[in-house]
Amino acid sequence: MGKENAIKIKFYSGENIPLELHKVRIVQKLNLVPIERRLEALKEGGFNTFGLKTTDIFLDMITDSGVNAMSDNQLAAMMRADDAYAGSQSFMRMQKAVEDVLGKKHLLPVHQGRAAENIISCAYIKKGSLVPMNYHFTTTLAHITQYGGRIVELLYDEAYKTTSTHPFKGNMNIEKLEAEIQREGVSNIPFIRMEASTNLIGGQPFSVQNLRDVRKIADKYGIRLVLDASLLGENAYLIIQREEEFKDATMAEVISEITGMADIVYFSARKLSSSRGGGICTNDVKIYREMEPLIPLFEGFLTYGGMSVREIEAIAVGLYETLDETMICQSPQFIEYLVNSAIEKGVPMVTPPGVLGAHVNAMEICKHLPQTQYPAGAFAAAYYLISGVRGMERGSLSNQRDEYGNETYADMELLRLAVPRRVFTLSQIKYVVDRLAWLNDNRELIGGLKFVYEPPVLRFFMGRLEPVSDWTEKLIAKFKADFGDSL
Ligand SMILES: Cc1ncc(COP(=O)(O)O)c(C=O)c1O
User: Fold this and answer.
1) Could you tell me if the CB of 204 is within 6 A of ligand 1?
2) Is ligand 1 within 6 A of the CB of residue 112?
3) Helix axes 89-102, 251-259, angle to 10 degrees
4) Single residue among 299, 323, 347 that ends a domain in this structure
5) pTM of structure
């Protein structure tokens, strides 16, 4: 572990190519079905990529959540899992890994990241509470508002620019944070939330210096600091790449510096440790006791929290593997390659390249579509249609309506193409870029979408839509003209 493993490999040709430092030992066959079938699949799925089935999907880039490739050691650990309702040795191994990697002694297990958000919100959010944060995640906002709370997002202006060279777009705006606390009053603010590798603005990290500044404000006003560590590994990797003070640091050093500043750390293990599950951890016994009774109520007994013991074993091993820079660098390096190659071909992408996925600026590509017709959702549907690649809309469709039922239009209309750890090959990434370039060149053929079924909460998961015109047929005709009988 540590610095000696941070291998940089140069090519004689001078090309900047990310090199896989793993080999494939188990494979899954993929399906690239004809474009006519892809249109049928879209209709069946309500023009929502969440409605598609993997039998109709070539590259599944909807998320990295729960689909990162697992290591041989994780799979081996799953075989020795200790099945016990209470006092399982598997849980003790997870506890030890949490203490070693995240530096927190007390662990509350939960079945996934949003379950942690439910427990934390249930324990600390009262009607009217305000939670300042760098930016929301969909499930975080849904849980805080469910318990009557509100949020305020305090990024710097630079974060809202899709093209930027700012290395830390996930930084909290410190001046605004202090002003917001003074305006609202400390008693109404149960905690400040920082999200590592801010998901919804393009997987953008915060710096250690910024977190130190947030911690100072938290101390000054006596407010708890909660860290969403779901994408902590990649945030730490980018700190090593981009923050001068940490250029020679190890992953373990950066991670412990970050988690050491938080009163509560929670995570989705679907992301953090390439497995499925989650946890909340702290060194403060009082905080632990405040949330402890909620685990058996919502999740399961305190030594499994709704998870299978096999997954608990995989989390324990996966947490240690997060400290391996040669493992954690693979996804951000592939994303960087994807983003830079797409930009070379004229596709507008969010920069600098972040983590978890590449983000296409659908607002720019679909300038001809009003936000009322969900440009990012339309682009996601169009891209699946012409490539068989499933991405995720991250724009107004992913937003929830305000308390009066009005649309709240997103700051950015993005298509996220997730690059789970160690899943795709470089030729597949080249295919992704090729089809993106084609769609961008034919962008005027993309039309809008409208809801035909809109659920009241987290509507982007189950919502059903349809095209506002016959644009899908026109897009298919152009695809056929350019690609002939190629899939
Ligand atoms: C930053 C962040 N927080 C929380 C969650 C919720 O985690 P889960 O999907 O495990 O419920 C996610 C999931 O993508 C996430 O990216």
Assistant:
1) no
2) yes
3) 90
4) 323
5) 0.95
